[in-house]
Amino acid sequence: DRDRAPDYLSGLNPEQRLAVETLDGPVLVLAGAGTGKTRVLTTRIAHIMATGRAYPSQILAVTFTNKAAREMKERIGVLVGGAVEGMPWLGTFHSIGVKLLRRHAELAGIRSDFTILDTDDVTRLIKQILQAESIDDKRWPAKQFAQLIDGWKNKGLTPADIPEGDARAFGNGKGRELYAAYQARLRTLNACDFGDLLLHPIAIFRKHPDLLREYHGRFRYILVDEYQDTNTAQYMWLRLLAQRPSPAKGEPRTADNTVNICCVGDDDQSIYGWRGAEVDNILRFDKDFPGATVIKLERNYRSTAHILATAGHLIAHNEGRLGKTLFTDRHDPEDQKVQVHAAWDSEEEARAVGEEIEQLQRDKHLLNNMAILVRASFQMREFEDRFVTLGLNYRVIGGPRFYERMEIRDAMAYFRLVCQDADDLAFERIVNTPKRGLGDTTIRLLHDYARARDIPMLAAAADIIETDEVKAKARKSLFDVVTMVRRWQGLLENTPHTELAEIILEESGYTDMWKVDKTAEAPGRLENLKELVRSMEAFESMRGFLEHVSLVMDAEQNENLDAVNIMTLHSAKGLEFETVFLPGWEEGLFPHQRSLDEGGRSGLEEERRLAYVGLTRAKRRCHLWFVSNRRIHGLWQSTIPSRFIEELPVDHVEVAEMEQSYGGYGRGGYGQSRFDKQEPFQNTYATPGWKRAQANKTDATRDNWGNRSGVAIDRIGYGESGPKARTIEGE
Ligand code: ATP
Ligand code: MG
């Protein structure tokens, strides 16, 4: 009865409402961008609670980022009219995985206070293993092996599952043994990598069906956002939890034996294939969960008709897709077409974007509602520099993270060791930082001693100082380290943790090390250390803080400030902004050179989906940019506009007029030919107008713009735009 429906349902369209109200049995919502998939999930959770179907603690909800999880919690609170008390199982795959593992760590052969290693730690650990096995790490780089293992883990493969052929791919055919040795080392260190946060729970559930049954009883409703980007391990994990036993013959389906899983996603937004995501998971949903209700949403509530048409036209160039209809009721003649701008180089691009933003600001638009979405994170710096000059506030989301800075990592290593003294990687990081005259030989000796006895290195150090295996000076240094760490451990329980942090940084000599350092960065590093201690205040304990850091690397600078958002396209998934700027639409950058090198169409199609994600983040205004010269590491590269620009629909796109100094090409050059005469951009690249513009540049610039194509760019090293280090979330 519609009239008596609760408020939170009344705003939904019929399909959305069906998705919210179909509470029994599997449900898949497969729909394009901005059609309200996330809103359906949020409302569904509110509905489950409001109708008393389950307690908040009985709902397992997976989001792609921690930020999305927080937002979802807030939204639910608004819908049910009051703060949501405890939804402990709302989070990313990794944050839920870590929670499960803390509870049952002993079943995986580790203790519940295990450390979560980041990419750097993992690489260092692998280096040690390769060294121990005398494998030449020039031929078989540790980093490469780290990636290989990560790939295996994304596929849900343990060492025993690695096929023979694959195993031979690394380390003289020893890939599988090395992987096993790595897992054994992790166990000794009482540590996990990111992949383990899912793989351990999977193994535990498989080995302990009774425990799995307990969770079947607990998780009455399972909900997953961005399902198109789940990888095989995540999928296995979900299936284990979702496939509750079917009712015995003749028995009715009840709340206890129904599979109540609801996944939402969009095959056109699958952008993590390079990291093992399997879009097939979404395509075979109704095979895995028989009797699934599949719901399509076709009305887009986010974007203007121009933006929607532009994105739709672009993505239609992909072959491997299901194809969907998207429409909007919104037809406002005031709506702006998608704006395409050309700039001479990235500096001009940043300057022009800055001007556009200032104009919007003068028209009373909030900076919070604007975003710059880049393909590769190196593109950010130019904007950051420009915004600092202009005094425009900005925040980098998911960007170079505070916690990844060297001094922060050093300090954290001290804290880690104090909280968990089996953390050898932390021990190794700080034992000679600041310098204490401990050479490689001593470290190696400690290392071997520890391994031979299967004890942590800190304990080995404590042992060794009783012997005369090391020289007097080293012995004194080790004695100091052991004594200090033990003393701090003794303070752990009864000293306020921020105070303890200060004590550690002082007594270790770490702060002093930067105080006497004369390099330009030292003052900044000291500032950062202060900021680190400050940031700990928000936590109850040092352990809680460490957990937070390993989980949440979602940079949230200036949360409360009105600021422009800067992030990669990959981390923009699921978000929306009034105005979106998409710089760097050039061949070799976007589509990224690597996807072109692959040759096949799958890499290129993933790039196109990324472009689709970018365009569909915009609600009202969308600006694309391309430059004709890009400077990387001080070298100029000539570039040509992205093929994606050619694939945009003429009717919904407008070439913006350039008022800048190099106006010659802005209008007369490419503008007319592509959108007025319907010729591809590449042709106009060689028009006299374009050339003239180039000739006007200074000598310094001209020296370097040889006639290279965009192809040259990648050799100088574009980074992947996805998160550099693996963070616990979509990264
Ligand atoms: P994406 O694929 O980008 O993740 P989505 O399908 O998850 O998009 P949402 O973010 O849930 O889409 O919704 C897009 C926007 O449309 C949001 O601002 C949301 O509040 C709004 N919206 C969704 N459904 C409705 C509705 N029935 N009435 C009004 N606004 C709606
Ligand atoms: Mg969404």
UniProtKB/TrEMBL annotation:
<keyword id="KW-0175">Coiled coil</keyword>
<dbReference type="GO" id="GO:0005524">
    <property type="term" value="F:ATP binding"/>
</dbReference>
<comment type="similarity">
    <text>Belongs to the helicase family. UvrD subfamily.</text>
</comment>
<dbReference type="InterPro" id="IPR027417">
    <property type="entry name" value="P-loop_NTPase"/>
</dbReference>
<dbReference type="Pfam" id="PF00580">
    <property type="entry name" value="UvrD-helicase"/>
</dbReference>
<comment type="function">
    <text>Has both ATPase and helicase activities. Unwinds DNA duplexes with 3' to 5' polarity with respect to the bound strand and initiates unwinding most effectively when a single-stranded region is present. Involved in the post-incision events of nucleotide excision repair and methyl-directed mismatch repair.</text>
</comment>
<keyword id="KW-0547">Nucleotide-binding</keyword>
<keyword id="KW-0378">Hydrolase</keyword>
<keyword id="KW-0347">Helicase</keyword>
<dbReference type="GO" id="GO:0000725">
    <property type="term" value="P:recombinational repair"/>
</dbReference>
<dbReference type="InterPro" id="IPR013986">
    <property type="entry name" value="DExx_box_DNA_helicase_dom_sf"/>
</dbReference>
<dbReference type="GO" id="GO:0033202">
    <property type="term" value="C:DNA helicase complex"/>
</dbReference>
<dbReference type="GO" id="GO:0043138">
    <property type="term" value="F:3'-5' DNA helicase activity"/>
</dbReference>
<feature type="domain" description="UvrD-like helicase C-terminal">
    <location>
        <begin position="305"/>
        <end position="574"/>
    </location>
</feature>
<feature type="coiled-coil region">
    <location>
        <begin position="343"/>
        <end position="370"/>
    </location>
</feature>
<dbReference type="InterPro" id="IPR000212">
    <property type="entry name" value="DNA_helicase_UvrD/REP"/>
</dbReference>
<feature type="binding site">
    <location>
        <begin position="31"/>
        <end position="38"/>
    </location>
    <ligand>
        <name>ATP</name>
    </ligand>
</feature>
<dbReference type="InterPro" id="IPR014017">
    <property type="entry name" value="DNA_helicase_UvrD-like_C"/>
</dbReference>
<dbReference type="GO" id="GO:0005829">
    <property type="term" value="C:cytosol"/>
</dbReference>
<dbReference type="GO" id="GO:0003677">
    <property type="term" value="F:DNA binding"/>
</dbReference>
<dbReference type="Pfam" id="PF13361">
    <property type="entry name" value="UvrD_C"/>
</dbReference>
<dbReference type="InterPro" id="IPR014016">
    <property type="entry name" value="UvrD-like_ATP-bd"/>
</dbReference>
<feature type="domain" description="UvrD-like helicase ATP-binding">
    <location>
        <begin position="10"/>
        <end position="304"/>
    </location>
</feature>
<keyword id="KW-0413">Isomerase</keyword>
<dbReference type="GO" id="GO:0016787">
    <property type="term" value="F:hydrolase activity"/>
</dbReference>
<protein>
    <recommendedName>
        <fullName>DNA 3'-5' helicase</fullName>
        <ecNumber>5.6.2.4</ecNumber>
    </recommendedName>
</protein>
<keyword id="KW-0238">DNA-binding</keyword>
<keyword id="KW-0067">ATP-binding</keyword>
